[in-house]
Specification:
Layout lengths: L6 H16 L3 H4 L7 E10 L5 E12 L5 E2 L2 E4 L4 H17 L6 E7 L7 H14 L9 E2 L8 H15 L23 H16 L8 E5 L3 H12 L3 E6 L4 E3 L6 H11 L11 E3 L1 H6 L4 E4 L8 H6 L4 E3 L8 H10 L2 E3 L1 H4 L2 H15 L5 H25 L4 H20 L4
Helix pairs in contact: 1-3, 1-15, 3-15, 4-5, 6-7, 6-13, 6-14, 13-14, 14-15
The structure holds glutamic acid (GLU).
Amino acid sequence: MSKKYNPYDQMLATLDKAAGMMNVPDSEYNFLRYPERELKVSLPVRMDDGTVKVFEGFRIQHSSLRGPCKGGIRYHQDVDQDEVKALAAWMSLKCAVVNIPYGGAKGGIKVDPRELSVYELKNLTRRFTAAILPLIGPESDIPAPDVNTNAQIMGWIMDTYSIFMGHSVPGVVTGKPLDIGGSLGRPEATGRGVMFATREMLKKHGKKLNEITVSVQGYGNVGKTAATLLYAEGSKIVAIGDVSCSIRNKAGLNIPEINDYVAKNGVLKGYKGAGVEEVTTEELLTCECDVLVPAALENQITEKIAEKIKASYIVEGANGPTSSEADVILNKKGIIVIPDILANAGGVVVSYFEWAQNIQSLMWNEEEVNSKLENIMIKSFQEVWDTKDQYKTDMRTGAFIVAMRRLVEARKIRGVFP
Ligand code: GLU
């Protein structure tokens, strides 16, 4: 029987593989195996019917070695400590790959937010903020959106934190609404980064965005923006899927029309465009296309799915969508995977820009944000590409090596306390 999927074990497996290739002794990188701090909180919330429900939440700081801890907060019914731990570690590695001055953290609440009213969601968010208050702050740990959280939720976090501090602290959180210190370009940043990563990948093989077909799993902030920007660049989006269903059109989907439909109806289900057929998630992941963008949750590309994938490239919009076992199969098949810690780093890069604007009370225009993001994505892609060539390995291990070099060096410079 195959072992139960544990995202933290997956993170450790890649860490060890990269360390082995780099020849780093265990004592120089073993600190990366352990999160610095793990906080588990219980959150009593008064529901609309007068009853009190208690939710479970986490904030885990993996590393503050290279700067304040940084990472999103997710609301999902499957959130657990090992998942948040893995996501926190991936944040430390992600920030190191793109060389921004942050460590890594992640938070989560075990809840299906679709079952809460707006009022309940706001109370849950405020209570969670109060519970993690000892950890967060613009100089210590800065949350941001992740799965099922958005700008409004970040606004409530900023407000709650500010009330406790007695003055407005916009830099405590990123991905906020523009009116309270959010950054232009932040909502689209992760999807834009995915588009840049795809473009850079194709360039290496003399191809262009307007020559490819794409399948996108997940139609939340990341998947939707990536599909929309790729469509605008001339890519043919042949399949997309969200929690409600997956759809396909070999001739290409009309993304602007679909976006209008989703804006009105909330989900893809019920969209009936010409030539559109409903398919299963497996069919979406394994359909005929050049680029597959998994932009939903972890462990979507399993061994079974990997065997059937027909795409030539996988660009990981989600965190941890590919299992390590599946990675082996994809490598054998010659499918190039642009790993999460590089492909979806655009979000945290623009979070960094937002925070930098907040703490200096500056406001950048969108062009400035997007072009700075583009430069970082191009440079980071090239660095990972060169590293994987140098070590004759795959892009994921290459990205881990780039990140670990920086983290191990930082540890050496700072030393071990006391
Ligand atoms: N949740 C996003 C990620 O996984 C963004 C994190 C951030 O901006 O801090 O990268």
